[in-house]
């Protein structure tokens, strides 16, 4: 029986690796295809085959995409808006999790349930009502038009993960801190927060990736280039370079690059944080 089990294990392991490699190639191929065609000329794109071997690498496509697509301006806006959204989501998630799980008050469970119900509401279902509210308050075409919905719709996920981690922290630590004279904010930010590093990393990364390529709300609420985010560069190039597909692919590659780099660098934190949060939740 043991020999049969070992033979079955030796046989199943290579099969598992082959299946995983095939799935990985299928997942990565669109990105490879995008980069390949962005380095070719527009004439070379209309050839047979899934990929093209450029006769000469067209780095000029990326120069046009970088300069004519206002890449630096839109990149700055995307980093600023997403960075502020990440900070606000982390701070509010920690404080809301502490209020709902550690503080004893009558409606704590109801409030937590209402906040988590945001997971069931699609972000784009609020486009019209939000637009009417922002238009009334003169918030359209401002940073708040994007920051408010980004934080609101990322908060339920952040609260869920933070609450799961906070439940694993012994209450005795907080009781000892109270006896030593610590106030509530000192307990939250000096004792609880350092013990939530994995949760904070996961919430930050997932909030950043979820909002990075969001375009529907940005195109609805913004009209001037002042606060436009990176996906707008793709939209502008579809009109300006409608016949030059290689340049369009170049600007798409530049737009996707920051999110891909963040995911590759911090992939371990994402999988570790989600797995730990699921087990503890």
The beta-strand count equals: 0
Order of helices and strands: HHHHHHHHHHHH
CA-CA gap between termini: 38 Å
- DSSP strand (E) fraction? under 5%
Write the layout of secondary structure elements.
Elements: H1 2-38, H2 60-68, H3 71-101, H4 108-116, H5 127-136, H6 144-166, H7 171-179, H8 184-192, H9 197-212, H10 216-221, H11 231-240, H12 245-280
Helix pairs in contact: 1-12, 2-12, 3-4, 3-6, 3-9, 6-9, 6-12, 7-8, 9-12, 11-12
Structure, explained:
- The protein is mostly helical.
- It folds into two domains: 2-38; 70-280, Orthogonal Bundle (MetI-like fold).
- Helix content is 73%, strand content 0%.
- The chain has helices spanning 2-38, 60-68, 71-101, 108-116, 127-136, 144-166, 171-179, 184-192, 197-212, 216-221, 231-240, 245-280.
- The longest helix is centred in the N-terminal third of the chain and has 37 residues, at 2-38.
- The protein starts with a helix and ends with a helix.
- The mean pLDDT is 82.
Features:
MetI-like fold, 2 domains, mainly alpha
Short description:
The chain has 281 residues and is mostly helical. Helices cover 73% and strands 0% of the residues. The mean pLDDT is 82.
């Amino acid at each position: 029986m043991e020999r049969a089990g070992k033979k079955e294990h030796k046989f199943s392991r290579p099969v598992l690796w082959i299946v995983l490699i095939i799935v990985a190639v299928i997942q990565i191929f669109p990105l490879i295809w995008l980069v390949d065609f962005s380095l070719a000329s527009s004439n070379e794109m209309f050839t047979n085959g899934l990929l093209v071997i450029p006769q000469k690498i067209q780095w000029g496509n990326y120069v046009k995409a970088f300069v004519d697509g206002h890449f630096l301006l839109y990149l700055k806006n995307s980093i600023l808006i997403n960075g502020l959204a990440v900070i606000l989501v982390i701070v509010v998630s920690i404080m809301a999790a502490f209020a709902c799980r550690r503080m004893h008050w009558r409606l704590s469970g109801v409030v937590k349930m209402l906040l988590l119900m945001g997971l069931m509401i699609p972000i784009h279902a609020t486009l019209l009502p939000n637009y009417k509210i922002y238009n009334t308050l003169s918030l359209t075409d401002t940073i708040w038009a994007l920051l408010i919905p980004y934080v609101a719709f990322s908060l339920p996920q952040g609260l869920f993960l933070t609450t799961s981690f906070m439940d694993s922290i012994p209450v005795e630590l907080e009781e000892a801190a109270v006896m030593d004279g610590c106030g509530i904010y000192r307990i939250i930010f000096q004792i609880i927060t350092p013990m939530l590093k994995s949760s904070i990393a996961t919430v930050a990364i997932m909030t950043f990736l979820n909002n990075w390529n969001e375009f529907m709300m940005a195109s609805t609420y913004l009209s001037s280039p002042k606060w436009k985010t990176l996906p707008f560069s793709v939209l502008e190039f579809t009109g300006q370079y409608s016949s030059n597909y290689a340049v369009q692919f170049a600007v798409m590659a530049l737009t996707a690059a920051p999110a891909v780099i963040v995911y590759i660098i911090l992939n371990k934190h994402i999988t570790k944080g989600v797995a730990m949060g699921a087990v503890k939740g």
